[in-house]
Design brief:
The chain is of the alpha/beta class. The protein has helices at residues 36-64, 67-70, 72-80, 83-96, 100-117, 121-142, 165-168, 189-197, 234-255, 279-287, 300-303, 311-324, 361-366, 368-381, 397-416, 434-438, 440-443, 454-462, 480-496, 513-519, 531-539, 543-553, 559-572; strands at 2-3, 5-8, 11-18, 156-160, 176-181, 201-203, 218-222, 227-230, 271-276, 293-297, 329-333, 386-391, 426-431, 450-452, 500-502, 523-526. Helix 1 runs antiparallel to helix 3 (72-80), helix 1 (36-64) crosses helix 6 (121-142) and helix 3 packs across helix 6.
């Protein structure tokens, strides 16, 4: 048994297929000065071909997995246009008269070595992106074919030192039982893709193996516990076969709950909605029993293109979502770019800390016409269903008032065009920065509803980058400071008589249910993939006992004690068919 990192949950038993490293030997070839122009043209042609391939892969992922996961490839496209990376390649060609493929290989090695020396797991993971893009470029410069996965239909456990998104996008998920990577962790793009595809993944086992894994080795992958078994004994195989069968049956049982209302055993009802990025996401959420969408991330409509989407384009998508929701509400978050979400055609300033910089509502209020175009599209679509507008990253009352003024302008412009809209469309505030929670009582006077975005709220309250594995242990959603921020925001909404929901990852955490019971939050929005598990926990919970457990959490002083209290309550929710 080998202890690695559980990067994607689930259990898999099967034979290994070891993927060869996607790297090539590049001879140190120099040229005459007269060949420089031709070498640069080879480089640029390789870049153009690589860009086209990446865009095709992005569209494939968007269709099969979802818009959010497809944005992984935006980072790859950005590398091909990164001035520092490309300047390094051009400099080696121009100053040292080396062939394009030699220059690309040296540039890859330089940046990967530099990132690997940093004491930051997130940056180490980004080194894989550089290797992925660089090796794709090398493939075209060398004329080398792709390394392919097995062509037969026999399921296998995929083993690699690292798995790049480019490799994952071409695999058939029905053939891949599980995955093992020597390097990587929970923040790697391969982990994100594995979780989206529902494939168990254990990472970080390179230095724990007595000898390298070989194709044909029998493996057990436990993505929950982060365990890898190599050539396990029959007892372990039997035990995990039983676990895997139990997981399969549980998945089938959970699907039966899609049409069941989320009501505790003693009659407290919850509304569970989906977090979506597209019409396809909404369809999946509704299939799993979601009551509408509590968060529509509209930034993904802006990413897969060369220009801003027009009012008409956005209207069509919002209309489809409104109609498909079938009377349920859909909360549309206005454009939330900046930070890790960039647009190729909209240059944002270079920032030392973009997550605390120019992003979300700050950009929308500065780019009034872009913001107004989106608002007009939402207003028009509001005639086809129950749409709401939500403003991201609000930190002041002035921002809400300014946004509402622009909304009024959008309404007047539609009036001039004699276009109908819901004049009483609700406009809400996303509580995701500490400032918003601190002045929630003031914001409640301007907003029609609150939605708490716990992902950013937790990392801002605790000053912990949730993507940084080095300090991952400090990212504690049940920290007393976070719970107090939640209580402050919820109390302000309740005092003002406006609805309050939660749309961050904490909404999809089954253990958090006692917190919501205690605070009086009954509206949760989450990833469609976890919705049925949360519903199952609610169906098997006693609200009275849950409220007591939630109240007890507010009397505890550490995240560990709070987590233990929530775990004790979870153990009382016995698995049973409802």
């Amino acid at each position: 048994m080998i202890q690695g990192i559980g990067a994607a949950a689930g259990v898999a038993i099967g034979k290994a297929f070891v993927l060869p490293a996607w790297e090539w030997d590049v001879p140190d070839r120099r040229m005459d000065k007269v060949d420089l122009a031709a070498e640069f043209e080879r480089l640029y042609e390789g870049i153009r071909t690589s860009r086209t391939e990446i865009e095709v892969m992005k569209n494939e992922v968007k269709e099969t997995v979802g818009a959010e996961e497809s944005s992984i490839f935006d980072a790859h496209l950005a590398i091909l246009e990164d001035p520092v990376f490309m300047s390094e390649i051009r400099g080696i060609i121009e100053r040292q008269y080396k062939a394009a493929e030699v220059a690309v290989k040296e540039a890859i090695d330089h940046f990967v070595t530099m990132f690997d020396l940093l004491d930051d797991e997130y940056m180490k993971e980004r080194a894989l992106d550089i290797k992925d893009v660089g090796n794709r470029l090398l493939k075209h410069l060398l004329g080398t074919p792709d390394i392919t996965l097995p062509a037969d239909t026999q399921p296998y456990i995929l083993v690699a030192r690292e798995l790049s998104p480019s490799q994952l996008v071409h695999m058939n998920p029905n053939n891949v039982l599980g995955m093992v990577t020597m390097a990587g962790g929970k923040t790697s793009h391969s982990a994100i893709m594995a979780r989206a595809l529902g494939i168990p993944l254990v990472s970080g086992v390179e230095h724990k193996l007595a000898e390298p894994l070989k194709t044909g080795d029998l493996l057990i992958v436990d993505g929950d516990a982060g365990l890898l078994y190599v050539e396990p004994d029959q007892e372990a195989v039997d035990r995990y076969t039983e676990v895997a069968e139990g997981l399969r049956k549980r998945k089938e049982q959970l699907q039966l709950l899609a049409a069941v209302e989320a009501v505790t055993k003693d009659g407290v009802q919850f509304r569970l909605a989906g977090n979506i990025s597209s019409v396809k996401d909404l369809e999946q959420a509704l299939k799993n029993g979601a009551e509408g969408a509590g968060l529509f991330r509209t930034e993904f409509l802006y990413m897969d293109r060369a220009t801003f989407p027009s009012e008409e384009e956005q209207f069509e998508i919002y209309r489809q979502v409104a109609e498909k929701a079938g009377g349920h509400s859909v909360v549309i978050r206005t454009l939330d770019i900046g930070g890790d979400k960039q647009l190729e055609y909209f240059a944002l300033p270079e920032e030392d800390n973009p997550f605390l910089g120019y992003r979300a509502i700050r950009i929308s209020l500065d780019s009034k016409e872009i913001f107004k175009t989106q608002l007009k599209a939402i207003l028009r679509a509001s005639m086809y269903g129950h749409l709401k507008i939500m403003l991201p990253m609000i930190s002041s009352l002035e921002e809400v008032r300014q946004a509402k003024e622009i909304l009024s302008e959008a309404k007047r412009e539609l009036d001039e065009r004699s276009i109908a809209y819901n004049d009483h469309i609700e406009i809400g505030v996303m509580i995701e920065v500490p400032a918003a929670a601190a002045i929630a009582d003031l914001l409640a006077g301007e907003a029609d509803f609150f939605s708490i975005g716990t992902n950013d709220l937790v990392q801002y309250v605790l000053a912990v980058d949730r993507m940084n594995e080095t300090i991952a242990h400090l990212y504690q959603p049940f920290h007393p400071a976070v719970l107090r921020m939640l209580r402050q925001a919820v109390s302000a909404a309740q005092d003002a008589g406006i609805p309050v929901s939660v749309c961050g990852e904490l909404a999809g955490d089954e253990k958090a249910i006692p917190i919501w019971l205690h605070l009086g939050v009954r509206d949760l929005s989450m990833s469609p993939q976890v919705l049925l598990r949360v519903k199952h926990r609610i169906l098997n919970a006693e609200a009275s006992t849950g409220k007591e457990a939630g109240a007890a959490c507010y009397r505890l002083a550490t995240a560990a004690d709070i987590d233990a209290e929530l775990t004790r309550f979870a153990e009382t929710c016995i698995l049973q068919k409802r």
